[in-house]
Amino acid sequence: MLAPGVRIEGYEVVSVLAIGAICHVYEARADGTAQPVAVKVLHEAWCADHEIVNRFRNEASVLRSIQHPHVVHLLASGMLPSGSPYMILERLPTHLARALVDADGALPSRTAVRLGSQIASALLALHGRGIVHRDLKPANVLLDAHELDAAQARLADLGLAKVPSEARAEQIAVGHVSTGGSALLGTWDYMAPEQWIKAKTAGAQADVYSLGVLLFQMLGGRLPFVAEEPKDLMALHLFERPPISRLGQQTPPALRELVGRMLNKVPSTRPTMQEVIGQLDSLR
Predict the structure, then answer these.
(1) In angstroms, how far is CA 147 from the centroid of its own chain?
(2) Are 51 and 177 in contact (CB under 8 A)?
(3) Is 1 a domain residue?
(4) Which domain holds residue 256?
(5) Euclidean distance between CA atoms 60 and 157, whole angstroms
(6) Helices 204-220 and 96-103 meet at what angle, rounded to 10?
């Protein structure tokens, strides 16, 4: 753990923001300014795991290479004397998971459409570089304000992103990670059918599906598929038709139709992310 007062690249650690299984996140402030930043540090216990370390470094490399208004901004990255890699990121006050809890139900369709379009534009920027996020969920969508009517979304946490080896040619320093076909990569409630079967081969259309789940949750106040056991949840994602009728009449028919297409089981039958953006923007 970093103690308050520790300095990293001109930033002074103020407090602990979050303690996760793999990373600790701290609030810090730059010299001579009250503007906070977030310092994400890999836990020392994981520093001997080359795959985890490479995923952390890959996330920093991707964020450094992509400057987009709806992708969280990387300010610096490096290695602590202890051997733990770190990232210094813009500090945002909340995230979509908390906003959904506070809303205690569905968001207004205009809010869901606006945030959905912003998230889709960030994903499209990744896809343009051959990168697939593979872990889209509310906790990975940061918000720059608590008031949802004005909040802007930032896509974060690319630790499970699929980065092509060709990215080396674009100056993204990619470390090797294993994505074996039997590994489940992602968060179960939001995973596309193909991620359940073979995460290694999941492409950009998997992110379209995950965004469809997220839009359903924002519009309906609940997830489309819920089960206690992973095998039961997998069966629902693989075989059950999404309950689009539960979105209700407050959701415009064109929006319900779009979400239904995004949740198609076969990747090739889903709209592209560019088509998703176009349809969402037409509904704003």
Answers:
(1) 20
(2) yes
(3) no
(4) 94-282
(5) 10
(6) 20
pTM over 0.85, yes/no: yes
Q: Which two three-digit tokens encode residue 175?
A: 């470390």
pLDDT tens sequence for the chain (284 residues): 899 999 999 999 999 999 988 999 999 998 778 889 999 999 999 999 999 999 999 999 999 999 899 999 999 999 999 999 999 999 999 999 999 999 998 999 999 999 999 999 999 999 999 999 999 999 999 999 999 999 999 999 998 898 886 544 444 444 544 444 445 556 899 999 999 998 778 899 999 999 999 999 999 999 999 999 999 999 999 999 999 999 988 899 999 999 999 999 999 999 999 999 999 999 98
Catalytic option among 49, 102, 104, 135: 135
Asked whether the beta carbons of 200 and 164 are under 8 A apart, the reply is no
Do the domain assignments include residue 252? yes
Number of helices (H), then strands (E), belonging to the chain: the values are 8, 9
Q: Is residue 221 part of a domain?
A: yes
Number of domains in the chain: 2
Strand order, beta sheet including 74-79: 7-8, 11-19, 23-30, 36-42, 85-90, 74-79
Q: Measured between alpha carbons, how far is 214 from 138 in angstroms, rounded to an integer?
A: 7
CA distance 224 to 246: 9
Please indicate, yes or no, whether residues 20 and 145 belong to a single structural domain of this protein: no
**DSSP letter string over 216-271?**
HHHHHSS-S---SSHHHHHHHHHHSPP-GGGG-TTS-HHHHHHHHHHT-SSGGGSP
Q: What angle do CA 73, 184, 262 make, to 5 degrees?
A: 70
Active-site residue, 135 included: yes
